[in-house]
Amino acid sequence: MRNTKNNRPIGVFDSGVGGLSVLIELEKILPRENFVFLADQLHVPYGEKSKSELVGLAYRIVDFFINKHDAKMVVIACNTSTCYSIDALRRKYSLPIIGTVPAVKPASEKTKSGAIAVISTPATSKSRVLKKLIEDNCWGMEVFNVGCKNLENAVEKGNIDNPRVHILLKKYLKKIKNSKIDYLVLGCTHYPFLKKSIRKYVKPPVKLLDGGFSIAKRVGFLLKTNFLKTGKKTKGKTLYLTTGNSAKFSKVAGKLLNKTIKSKTVKI
Ligand code: DGL
């Protein structure tokens, strides 16, 4: 089924630039779709917020996507927001909402050593969702669940390989240094941008796993089964928005994605 309505955009949000690590996978797999990417930088970091704050922000963002952009689907490109607000969002809205959770399940299926580690924000690390993912998938395995404060803030500033970020990484990754892990799950969408720096402390054969590709595949599947795929034959467009400072967003996003980014500040 093809109709012009399906050219409506997919809303993608995160607290900041981290969600771009999901957006790039979406753009790769679904090049004809239009996206509206919103970085809620006025409220970053999400990883230190309460459940009610996170649900309240998520409501405002989804309302914004629906009312201002007529979004056909929403992708929560943020593990923290997903862990605390996806159930409330799905209860309130009828459009498809896809979340991002730490890739514990695939890591548990692939591990040979029987030991994995997950790094995430403090809120994700102590969330019921992550604990349940571990309980349900990692029976009899050794799992290191490491909450990392301030890592996302470094990425927000575009600091992906500076001394400050190395001090933080060294501190958090020390906990798994002499372990048997063969998979390290990057449970925050800001962390894929730190892969090169993480590799200084976590060497192969340990594999780094994030959820971007699987989420993009899932979005593609849901577009198809909900008859929401765009009918366009040309390349889609992405609109970059922030609730913070657009000059700062454009600069850091441009550095992370290695291309020129133009963005606009919006109120939600
Ligand atoms: N990028 C987000 C995540 O995946 C949250 C970062 C933050 O604002 O604390 O959890």
From TrEMBL:
Pfam families in alphabetical order: Asp_Glu_race
Enzyme class name: isomerase
Residues at the active site: 78, 188
UniProt binding sites for substrate: 14-15, 46-47, 79-80, 189-190
Isomerase as UniProt keyword: yes
GO molecular function, one term: glutamate racemase activity
Reactions mediated catalytically: L-glutamate = D-glutamate
GO BP terms in the entry: cell wall organization; peptidoglycan biosynthetic process; regulation of cell shape
Keywords noted in UniProt: Cell shape, Cell wall biogenesis/degradation, Isomerase, Peptidoglycan synthesis
Pathways involved: Cell wall biogenesis; peptidoglycan biosynthesis
EC number assigned by the record: 5.1.1.3
UniProt record similarity statement: Belongs to the aspartate/glutamate racemases family.
Functional description taken from the UniProt entry: Provides the (R)-glutamate required for cell wall biosynthesis.
Protein name according to UniProt: Glutamate racemase
Organism: Candidatus Nomurabacteria bacterium GW2011_GWF2_43_24
